[in-house]
Amino acid sequence: MDAVEEVRVELGERSYTVSIGRGLLDNLPGFLPKRQWRKAVVVTDSNVGPLYAETAVTGLRALGLETVLLEMPAGESSKNADRALEVVEFLISSGLTRSDVLVALGGGVVGDLTGFAASVFKRGIDIVHVPTSLMAQVDSSIGGKTAVNVPAAKNLIGTFHQPVAVVSDVDLLESLSAREFRSGLAEVAKYSLLTAKEWGRDFREDATGIERMKHPRLAEVVAWCVREKAELVSADERDTGVRHNLNYGHTLGHALEAVGGYDGTYSHGEAISIGMVYAAIVSEELGLGRRSLARDHMRLLESFGLPVRPPDEAPGFDALALSMAQDKKSAGDNVMMLLEEEGKPCVRRGLDSALLRRCYDLLISSPSRGEGASGACSR
Known about the structure:
Function: Catalyzes the conversion of 3-deoxy-D-arabino-heptulosonate 7-phosphate (DAHP) to dehydroquinate (DHQ).
GO biological process, one term: aromatic amino acid family biosynthetic process
Pfam family, one: DHQ_synthase
Strand content: 15-25%
CATH topology of the largest domain: Rossmann fold
EC number: 4.2.3.4
Subcellular location: Cytoplasm
Shape: globular
């Protein structure tokens, strides 16, 4: 096992450690806090379970825990209230108490769904996240947000429930499909756009594209993002202030997923990639950002093979606007996270619907290559 990076999320009595490195799953017991657990339930999905569940279960049993496995169908369509109730019913039938633990072994869907179940079962039991996707390792496993989707909007039903530990083994990312890995790169790109730290600028300016994310740099990049997330969560656990920064690109991105019925047309990262370009266009049109901001977003995101505009059969703005209005930052108005420039995020409220529609028209008419974006997005 190589060196392990440890990042603390400082939340008083709810503080915990995010461990990042290679070979961590094989040594899972060594990264868990000392608790008086008796039983554990490992929740995973049909993609991850056959690969890693046995190792996780074996490690937990080595601690003397009576451990059982729950495997659910993979995919965003599983992240719903009915499936969450199934998880809770499984916990009941397994005899779990508030002195036991859930282990979420999977990507963002497994983490969000299992976290939600952990938060409501007997008003809250311990959960450990073992994220297996890049998206989950750099973002969704940290910070305690849990949720399920409804047709009207993504993550509309949820809670805050912090884990007691996060164990991020970057070796597990090797089993991801190319599309799943690229999807996670959207969140990495987001952090590089939001941060004012030197690593963000260096990352954006690196011309090697996806090569910059291969071993041995992968664990380093994951750790950069985790430190950014931990800092924001520690300052704003309940997402009422600076944690809003993390929603950059998510207003349109979540709307694209919801309008598509979570049918796989967009992965989460693909939708957020498009949403970040849209946010950059809005920033330009408001006069907040420079006229090359959207173009520069496109170049960065396309270097990872991510989409920068909806496909030709893009949904109409009216359908998206209904979902965008469900943004959890909204007080009944149109609100978005925007950028003045890289490293300077800001919230803008009361945005004019006509402006947002015009920016969407600019988005869907923009070239698919960043090199030619200036004319369409920065007239």
